[in-house]
Predict the 3D structure of the following.
Amino acid sequence: MTDDITWLQETRGTVHMFTNKRMMCLFLLFFYTGFNQPYQQATFGNRFFNRRTIGVQLIVFHLMEIASAIIVGRLLDQTISNRRTRAVQCLTVFIVVNGLGNVLAAAQEYSSKRAGSPTAHDILDIGVVSPSLAFACWGFADAQIQVYCYWLIGGLYKSGSDHARAVGFYKMAQSLGTSVGFFLIPTSRLSGISQLSCSSLVFAVGILLSFSQLPRQQSCEQKD
């Protein structure tokens, strides 16, 4: 399906994505979907796992992403409850799972601060359990919130052009988050606990703002 619109209308529609309240409220949540992984996989993973263990952890991380995408996608698409209820349930689970990962990571960060340096755990060490659980939580939460973002956009924008612009805005915000995250990851520039604090702050504020843009009870297109 193609929309018969001029380049001027397309430009106006694209610029509108950067000025309307809906996208501004969702911007930090979109930003977080890219901002979180540089700390999680690079700063945290490379400091608290040794070389062979980080490989296993990344496998677990992405397996949890696959499982989460399947589970969350099916739950969001079920019709037993209305869209608004499903959105609240999804965001609540995300808060719990991602928050647990951050709490476990904070425990590792403060422990390493007291010890003077982080311990790179081997896969056979008993101490690997806690950071491994953090990785598993982050993997599940990462896919969960991305599935939610696409599902939310699909419900908010029904027309092909508006939907495409909204997805483009989401990917722009996500890419910006990834770029900023990688800019911050050298611990010589920003300590591990400070990176986690920044990530947690964006996570908390982004989620809070996203609750102001829940879908309506019915699966109908909203107007700005």
Q: What stands out?
A: DSSP finds seven helices and no strands in the chain. The radius of gyration is 19 Å.
